[in-house]
Every structure is written in structure tokens, then in C-alpha cells.
């Protein structure tokens, strides 16, 4: 196994890393846009373990979107200023915090915390699912935008229940570039489900709870295919917070997979 300056370029005996990097590298991509710096973003995989096989929540994007129209995705989006100020229940587990600050410019635990909150906020905005715990009293915090709904309902987002399972940077010269952190959480962490967030005039037109094997048959972005397989691998290895986190990025037009986490 070869060390890199930021992590480990993984070579596992069953070919898992090689198979996924080969797949995501082989996807044809137009590269006709001016290059831009990737923006911080986060997404959340909600897992339902209540049946014989685990299911994940996926949403179908509106066909009118310029970005990934009609694709099935996990809820998520860009970080916002209020994500840095929102109070929360609990704290990120130390291994999660360590993996989030690895391979970042000006590493900061507060940035990792904000990204986890971004995933929770975006999930609410796109699906109506409010991740968190009911609080006896609400502390000071941003009372505008989507976080205002959490305050109105007396719910604090729960960081202790969050797993960090992957990170990926969009290749250069694409129309939009993101440095996306992929989080996962159990469906039991949902404190409230509100209707009216999904429909023909919304960002997501359909929601599905689907087993991973069936999800792989949907129209998915390539990195979503990769993260579903990383999710399965993580489950096989016990789904512990201490497991290293795969990080995908492009080097010389080929994807590299590194592992992030505590030294």
C-alpha cells in the first residue's frame, strides 16, 4: 500500500478500490467550461434498517434542472453561512471530525461541523425530513431560512448520529464543481416528517426508499454509484466511525481514491 502526503492510495486485495476508480475514470465527460474552484457541499444518505434488507432514501431531480436533470440523487447542496452558526445536539464523533479536516486548506473543526449541518438542512429543504432531537429549550441561533423551522418546532439537529462515509471533488472544467462530503444517518434520527416538499414543481419530484441493489438500477450520477458501493463496503466492515473515509479526486484525468481519517 503506497502512502501519499494526505492519506493512503488504497489497493485492497479484492479489487474494490481499483474497480471503483476505473469505473468513475471511464465515464465520458465534457470539459468545455472555464475551470473554477470547487465549492463546499454536503449530502446525506438516510438509511432505513427496519426491513429484511436496508434501504436508502433517493430523490428524483426535476427534468427542468440544468444540473443533473432527471437523475436520482441523495438530498444535499452547498454550505451556507447559517450552517456555521446553527446550534446542535451532541458533537461529531472524534474520528469523523478528524476525517473531515484531513486534506483541507486551513483545516478547522468548525468547518466540518458546518458541513454536517449543511447535509441535515438540505435534507429538510428537499424532502421535509427533519433530522434531530426535540429540545426542552432552544439556544440562540439563526432564525431565518430553513433553520427557522427547526426553532419553531423545538428540534435541534443531532450531530452525534452522523456518519462520514465519503468525499469527492468534481473534475476540472465541468459546469459546476463541488467538494462534496457524503454523510449517512439512520432513519430513526428523523424527528419530524413534513409533507409538501416533493412534487412536480419542487426540486425533487419523487422520493424512493430502495434497497441498494435496486438503487443501482436507477438513473444515477457516477459518483452516486460509487458511494452506494462504498456504503455497502462500510456496512460489511461494521459501519464504525473509526473506519477510514474514501476520498475521490482526479489527477491527470484519472480518479484517485485515498483514505482519510486519524493517523
UniProtKB/TrEMBL annotation:
Transmembrane segments: none
Cofactor(s) listed in the protein's UniProt record: Mg(2+); Mn(2+)
Stored InterPro entries: NUDIX_hydrolase-like_dom_sf, NUDIX_hydrolase_dom, NUDT19
GO MF terms held by the record: hydrolase activity, acting on acid anhydrides, in phosphorus-containing anhydrides; metal ion binding
Residue ranges constituting the Nudix hydrolase domain according to the UniProt record: 37-232
PANTHER family given in the database record: ACYL-COENZYME A DIPHOSPHATASE NUDT19, TESTOSTERONE-REGULATED PROTEIN RP2
Keywords: Hydrolase, Magnesium, Manganese, Metal-binding
Matching PROSITE patterns: NUDIX
Protein name: NUDIX domain-containing protein
Amino acid at each position: 500500500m503506497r502512502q501519499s502526503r494526505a492519506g493512503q492510495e488504497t489497493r485492497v486485495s479484492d479489487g474494490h478500490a481499483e474497480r471503483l476508480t476505473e469505473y468513475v475514470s471511464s465515464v465520458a465527460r465534457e470539459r468545455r467550461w472555464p475551470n473554477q474552484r470547487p465549492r463546499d457541499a454536503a449530502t446525506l444518505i438516510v438509511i432505513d434498517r427496519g426491513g429484511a434488507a436496508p434501504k436508502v432514501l433517493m430523490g428524483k431531480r426535476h427534468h427542468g434542472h440544468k444540473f443533473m436533470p432527471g437523475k436520482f440523487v441523495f438530498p444535499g447542496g452547498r454550505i451556507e453561512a447559517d450552517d456555521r452558526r446553527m446550534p446542535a445536539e451532541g458533537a461529531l464523533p472524534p474520528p469523523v471530525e478528524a476525517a473531515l479536516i484531513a486534506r483541507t486548506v486551513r483545516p478547522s473543526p468548525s468547518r466540518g461541523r458546518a458541513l454536517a449541518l449543511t447535509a441535515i438542512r438540505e435534507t429538510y429543504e428537499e424532502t421535509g425530513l427533519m433530522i434531530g432531537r426535540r429540545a426542552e429549550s432552544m439556544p440562540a441561533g439563526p432564525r431565518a431560512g430553513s433553520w427557522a423551522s427547526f426553532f419553531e418546532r423545538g428540534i435541534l439537529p443531532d450531530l452525534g448520529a452522523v456518519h462520514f462515509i465519503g468525499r469527492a471533488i468534481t473534475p476540472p472544467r465541468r459546469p459546476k464543481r463541488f467538494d462534496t462530503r457524503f454523510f449517512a444517518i439512520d432513519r430513526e434520527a428523523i424527528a419530524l416528517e413534513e409533507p409538501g416538499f416533493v412534487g412536480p414543481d419542487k426540486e425533487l419530484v419523487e422520493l424512493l426508499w430502495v434497497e441498494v441493489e435496486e438503487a443501482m438500477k436507477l438513473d444515477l450520477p457516477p459518483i452516486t454509484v460509487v458511494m452506494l458501493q462504498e456504503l455497502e463496503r462500510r456496512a460489511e466492515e461494521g459501519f464504525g466511525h473509526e473506519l477510514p473515509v474514501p476520498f475521490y479526486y482526479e489527477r491527470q484525468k484519472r480518479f484517485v481514491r485515498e483514505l482519510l481519517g486519524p493517523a
